[in-house]
């Protein structure tokens, strides 16, 4: 404000010097508390102004004073209190916050100065509005247009002179007028993405104009971000190409990127990666230990990539806990044609065969039932096996990396894991540290997943708000990186207007903060994540919303599209897609 009113401020400052000429008695002694009229919040920063009428030979009638006083004191030139004289000049006295008199202003001069200050401010205000490319519009309490910038003229192709002073709802459907809603509800809108036309995407901010405790209008600014959205799409497709090329590259030259998918730079992770690099140099059998979700499969794949840098050798992962006992042998060793009823007539290669010249990754090895442990042990000892129904012995020609989140020592002690198999697998072991022991990685990992899921769900979220990041950093992550990944995915899916929302964070062991976010059918399922994908859940919600809105609009498509802030064409597409009858 100070900067916008340079002349007025200067004027006020000049007025202080006049103080010397004031009658001495006007200072403090005449200004009893009940006579003072303190004008606060008039915009004189740091000053309180006190009005008093003082006698001189003057010409300003009392009715025309700038600010009405509740009490006046009339004094003569000597500063003595007198009855109201016929003519007098009015002054506004200026005090600082310590109630020390600083100066005075003749109210007549103040008029001119205020008008000048107002014009100055108006000139700045109008220039500022015309300088921005955004559209800025405002309505008063009667919905009449008060502000319509050149940005608005361009965006909506309506000239200022056509719309100024007119009811804005004559020009736009009411449902599309965000300022009307803000005028009525006082709602503040921040960075909301909106698509008023098929070819136009804008970012909207809206605020009510408050004065004397009432809402007297609303201001809306709209920035055309169509180009940015287009660029983001182009960037996203460029990223896709990069990811694709990276993948190709890692096949052709795996040694260039063995760790590219392992994110994080904590000392604990670096130490683990250093050990992985060492192990990658030798073909020894490896046992990866660590809690569930720490990334054991990623590390196994990195070891494989280092070891097979020159070739495109296969990396075959087997989840030992998920193979039904009856299929264990046929899955691992394969079978010959006609080996058993129901078997493919062609026969089938087992995982050992598929991993030939590469790596067989035995995940969850601690879950293997004892009888299968015996079969696995025999293969590891002898280095050969027979496919089911086959008579020709096959040689194990792959490297083995096993992993478990169980304490194998403890299982051996309990007798549920064979000691001899344990020693066969446990040549070299590495323990991947849990995420809580490398909290430094949370920031990098969460941004990595944010980027990944924005790409998957076509969202444009640049950052994780500080409040959310603090929550992520504060949590102990029993489900490790997998849980963090799921948490970020959830935040991205339920983000609104490309903003992550703190209320969408919920950690394992907590129930969802908002029951609407979890589909009841998903809740019923013992494996919720497998029953309904997030995409399906979102589509279901979209369908429900369209049906509901259509019903409340008595089937009127125009109104429905307006209420949902989508075009009629988009609405028809969606009605078609979801088979909603019209
Ligand atoms: N450092 C990391 N950088 C990027 N992604 C990671 C990292 N660590 C783990 N992940 C991701 O977290 C998820 C879980 O990892 P992974 O399946 O390798 O864990 P795990 O230790 O094998 O778990 P389990 O013991 O339950 O099989 C995967 O989606 C993986 O890509």
From TrEMBL:
Pfam families: AAA_lid_14 (PF25601), HTH_8 (PF02954), PAS_10 (PF13596), Sigma54_activat (PF00158)
Plastid found in the keyword field: no
The keyword Transmembrane belongs to this UniProt entry's keyword annotation: no
GO terms of molecular function: ATP binding; sequence-specific DNA binding
All copies of domain PAS, residue ranges: 121-172
UniProt keywords, alphabetically: ATP-binding, Nucleotide-binding, Transcription, Transcription regulation
GO biological process entries: regulation of DNA-templated transcription
Domain Sigma-54 factor interaction: start-end pairs: 262-493
Residues in coiled coil: none
Source domain of life: Bacteria
Annotated stretches, region: Disordered: 508-529
PANTHER family: C4-DICARBOXYLATE TRANSPORT TRANSCRIPTIONAL REGULATORY PROTEIN DCTD, TRANSCRIPTIONAL REGULATORY PROTEIN
Protein's recorded name: PAS domain S-box-containing protein
Lineage of producing organism: Bacteria, Bacillati, Bacillota, Bacilli, Bacillales
């Amino acid at each position: 404000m100070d900067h916008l009113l340079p002349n007025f401020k200067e004027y006020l400052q000049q007025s202080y010097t006049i103080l010397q000429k004031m009658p001495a008695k006007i200072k403090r002694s005449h200004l009893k508390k009940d006579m003072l009229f303190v004008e606060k919040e008039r915009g004189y920063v740091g000053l309180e102004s006190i009005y008093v009428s003082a006698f001189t030979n003057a010409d300003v009638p009392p009715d025309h004073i700038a600010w009405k006083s509740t009490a006046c004191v009339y004094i003569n030139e000597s500063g003595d209190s007198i009855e109201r004289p016929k003519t007098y000049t009015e002054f506004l006295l200026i005090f600082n916050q310590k109630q020390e008199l600083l100066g005075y202003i003749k109210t007549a001069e103040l008029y001119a100065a205020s008008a000048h200050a107002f014009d100055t401010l108006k000139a700045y205000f109008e220039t500022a509005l015309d300088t921005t490319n955004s559209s800025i519009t405002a309505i008063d309490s009667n919905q009449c247009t008060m502000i319509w910038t050149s940005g608005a003229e361009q965006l909506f192709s309506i000239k200022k002179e056509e719309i100024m002073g007119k009811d804005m709802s004559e020009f736009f459907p009411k449902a599309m007028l965000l300022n009307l809603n803000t005028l009525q509800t006082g709602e503040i809108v921040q960075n909301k993405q909106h698509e008023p036309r098929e070819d136009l995407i804008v970012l909207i901010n809206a605020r009510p104009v408050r004065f004397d405790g009432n809402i007297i209008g609303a201001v809306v600014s709209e920035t055309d971000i169509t180009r940015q959205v287009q660029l983001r799409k182009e960037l996203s497709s460029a990223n896709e190409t990069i990811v694709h090329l990276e993948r190709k590259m890692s096949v052709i030259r795996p040694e260039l990127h063995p760790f590219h998918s392992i994110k994080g730079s904590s000392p604990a992770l670096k130490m683990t990666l250093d050990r992985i690099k060492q192990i990658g140099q030798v073909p020894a059998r490896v046992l990866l230990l660590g809690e569930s979700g720490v990334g054991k499969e990623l590390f196994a794949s990195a070891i494989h990539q280092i070891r097979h840098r020159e070739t495109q050798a296969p990396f075959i992962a087997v989840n030992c806990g998920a193979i039904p006992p009856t299929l264990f042998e046929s899955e691992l060793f394969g079978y010959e044609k006609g080996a058993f009823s129901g078997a493919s007539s062609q026969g089938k290669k087992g995982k050992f065969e598929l991993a030939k010249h590469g790596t067989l990754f035995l995940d969850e090895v601690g879950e293997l039932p004892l009888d299968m442990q015996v079969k696995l042990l025999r293969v590891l000892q002898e280095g050969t096996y027979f496919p089911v129904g086959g008579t020709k012995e096959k040689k194990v020609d792959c490297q083995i990396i096993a992993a478990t989140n169980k304490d194998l020592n403890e299982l051996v002690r309990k007798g549920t894991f064979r000691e001899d198999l344990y020693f066969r697998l446990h040549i070299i072991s590495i323990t991947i540290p849990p995420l809580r022991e490398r909290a430094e990685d949370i920031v990098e990992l969460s941004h990595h997943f944010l980027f990944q899921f924005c790409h998957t769900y076509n969202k444009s979220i640049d950052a994780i708000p500080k409040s959310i990041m603090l929550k992520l950093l504060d949590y102990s992550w029993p489900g490790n990186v997998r849980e963090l990944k799921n948490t970020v995915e959830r935040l991205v899916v339920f983000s609104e207007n490309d903003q992550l929302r703190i209320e969408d964070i919920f950690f394992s062991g907590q129930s969802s903060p908002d029951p609407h976010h979890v589909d009841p059918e998903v809740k019923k399922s013992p494996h919720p994540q497998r029953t309904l994908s997030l995409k399906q859940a979102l589509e279901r919600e979209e369908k429900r919303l369209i049906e509901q809105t259509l019903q409340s609009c008595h089937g009127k498509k125009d109104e429905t599209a307006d209420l949902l802030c989508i075009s009629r064409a988009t609405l028809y597409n969606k009605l078609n897609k979801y088979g909603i009858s019209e």
